[in-house]
Design brief:
The chain is mainly α and about 475 residues long. It has one domain. About 60% of the residues lie in helices and about 0% in strands. Strands 1-2 form a two-stranded antiparallel sheet. Strand 1 and strand 2 form a beta hairpin. The longest helix is centred in the last third of the chain and has 32 residues.
Amino acid sequence: MGTRPPRKAPGNRVVRRRLDATSVIELPREPKHPSVPNATTHAKRFVAGVTLLIVIGGLLLMMPFASATHTRTPAIDAFFTAISSISVTGLSTVNTATHWSFWGQLIILVLVQLGGFGFMVGASLVLVVIGRGLSLRDTLMMQDGSPTMSLHDVTTLTGRIIRFILISEGIGAILLFTWYIRHYSLPDAIWNSIFLAVCAFCHAGFDLHTHTSSLQGMNDIPVVIVTVGALIQLGALSYMVLSDVWTKRAWRPLRLDSKLVLITNGIMIVLASVLFIVVEWNASLSPVETEWKPLAAVFQAIAARTAGLSSVDFSQAHTSTLFLWVAVMMVGGAAGSTAGGVKLATVAVLFLAVISTLRGQEDAQAFGRRLSPALIYRAMSVFALFLTVHFILSLGLAITEDTFNSASFSFTSLMFETMSGLTTTGLSTGITPDLSIPGKLILYLAMFMGRLGPITAAYALQRRQKPARYRFPEAHIRIG
């Protein structure tokens, strides 16, 4: 039998073509695939975008049309308001209701909304990526305790977060409108409702009330206090936690992260409310009627989590309350939320590590899960870096205001103001407009670092973590 000729595979055919001496064969180029930025690029673009929005917002607020008097706003005040808006802080060197025109207020609201959108969406994506130690190459792969997500899934997640924000703010604005329409004209009622709802959800302490500062004098109006408090909580707990609760609808199947956030959040609200009502009953709560004091105390405990809105005058608060509120503001909300601070889960991880050490356990544990030492080290690093930055900024503010400006501000007030800026809270004892220009620049830095610092620190620590190829011998150090 003769041998069969080898079967030609479709890709192995030889094509012979007679060419002229001047003929040129042009090989087909590889089709271009859209490149997907890795996590580093995403973080850099996020920081660059925030910086660009601050510059644009500051320049717009300097324009005469942005002020109520149609005069140019000084650059120090315009850029302070811009960075306070985009960082969703709420500290202000001028009165938002009287200094700015409608267009100036609209610019502030747009910056606040972009800050809330950008941070909740951008930080959520970055946190999910770095939380799993994944890279982004030709396809963005993300994992959140569930099957890996593709680019389409990421786009879907982003859309869901944006819808969550808009629906929450829309419902809040409608509820607030039911009260404002009884005391304001229709255009003012609509504008005030939208402005307050957006600022409450995004945790920016701006308001448009001309007769009161923030929400002072409104403690006996439950529809306002409860609605604003609910919006603050929705913004502080993050879409990821609330989505987990909505999907599982039971305690046991919730992710460990969600459980720690919810437990820590509840403990913080209860403790802060009780301590506030005990200490401030005859101080900052004295103008409030007795039956409304518990609601006012709970609202302060909720709003202190980087919201910046208050229904009492913190300039009348005891020093002990201000010192306690420095710690409450530092905790903040959940990771990936509109809140600032070191985040609820970070505090929970550190607490679990301390409890495990006191019990003599080798590993930190919670709900049948073990926390890795690397996670605990990162939590300790973020906490320590935050405290260090606050110490340095508070010292700088004390030097600018006490040494060179000879102002009569107490050091507790300066610490409070610095922590309010660093945690993007926006609460104030009323000294912000009276700070010197160097002092305002320090708060500039505090707000910028506070908005981007924790996520940047967590990302940097995650990226620097590498598996060790060798281990040194243990050494015993005397402590305590």
